[in-house]
Amino acid sequence: MPRLDESRASLLDALAGHYGPLSPPGGGPPGSGDAAPFEWIASVALGLVADPRIASAALAALREAGLLEPGALAAIDPLELDDIFRQARVRLTARVLQPLRKIARWASDQAFDAESVRLMSTETIRESLRGLNGVGPATADSLLLFALGRAAYPVDRPTYRVLVRHGWLDPSADYDEARSVAESIAPDDPGALAQLSLGLEKVGRDACKPAVARCERCPLRHLLPEGGPIEVG
Ligand code: SF4
Predict the structure, then answer these.
(1) pLDDT tens for each residue of 5-39
(2) Half-sphere exposure of 163 toward its Cβ, with a 13 Å CA cutoff?
(3) In which element (H, E) is residue 47 found?
(4) 107, 40 in Cβ contact below 8 A?
(5) Which of 11, 19, 65, 150 could pair covalently with 144 via S-S, beta carbons 3.0-4.6 A apart?
């Protein structure tokens, strides 16, 4: 069975060859343009939960209203915020808005700017974000990776299925064990981890489905263990 450390380059090459460069939520790369760190976070947070057109319109409405400053977004009356989105013809649910406002409050409390972010460890940011109601481990790692350019991996179900079916992860692994295995593929390379995450999400949608692995159509079939995919359980 090909070990993960022997398969890293082949795995990344196969995804890149099959899908080409993939665009992250929020459009990335992190820190592009003149945007402040909170704008990167808001952009990715919206991109994770809304389709790109709605996320882009919501971001534009926030920018127009001066709400891409975390203190302003945290403090605004929710009804006023609803009005701003209504006027911009953007429909966002409370499930989307509440975590974003909690992240805004957190960022405001941290005096979140490029310099303060640079000084914070990845683990500190991860733990802080996970402590916010409505921000789960995968969302926290998505924000770290796609918004802040840290070498973090947001483990989703497709990644878990691929790692288990190839024998690279024990099916009983918890979230952080799976994250650690995925991060080991490119431990110091956020760009490679981003392409890995986006590529495995596509593999999960196209071939490595929850109920059945359609290996015959998958770009990763050359990395299968002898005897085929392992049962996810
Ligand atoms: S579909 Fe098959 S080859 Fe593709 S990732 Fe899943 S188990 Fe691997």
Answers:
(1) 889 999 999 999 999 999 888 666 555 545 677 88
(2) 28
(3) helix 37-49
(4) no
(5) 150
What distance in angstroms lies between residue 221's CA and the mean position of ligand 1's atoms?
Answer: 6
Domain boundaries, the chain: 4-22+153-223, 37-147
Assign domain 37-147 to its CATH architecture: Orthogonal Bundle (1.10)
Return the residue whose CA atom lies nearest to atom 5 of ligand 1.
162
Q: How far apart are CA 4 and CA 22, in angstroms?
A: 22
Half-sphere exposure of residue 175, counting CA atoms within 13 Å on the CB side?
Answer: 12
Protein residues with CB under 6 Å of any ligand 1 atom: 162, 165-166, 203, 207-208, 213-215, 218, 220-221, 224, 229
Task: Report the C-alpha gap between 220 and 145 in whole angstroms.
Answer: 23
User: CA-to-CA distance for 227 and 175, rounded, in angstroms?
Assistant: 27
Whole-number Å distance, alpha carbon 207 to ligand 1 midpoint, is 7
Please give the model's pTM, rounded to 2 decimal places.
0.90
